[in-house]
Amino acid sequence: MPVISEFFGIKVMMFWADHAPPHFHAQYGEFKVLVAIEYATVLQGVFPARQLKILLAWCEMRRSELMENWAAAREHREIKSIAPIH
Description:
Layout: E1 3-7, E2 10-13, E3 23-28, E4 31-36, E5 41-45, H1 49-61, H2 63-74
Antiparallel strand pairs: 1-2, 2-3, 3-4, 4-5
């Protein structure tokens, strides 16, 4: 599973040909979440509150790039890196 971005100890990953709805995986230490791209909401898992806020803000800022990667992954094309939040 490629890491597409990394910031503040958070790793953001996306699988090729993953199941709907469009989403990404994120990990912070032992915490893991699945985040729906369209609404920047957690589908599964838990994160510490501060890191979750940062992650969801990043998702909203990078939604179009995330959706482009989602489409590429569904077609087994290259998944590109996405700029981190600063």
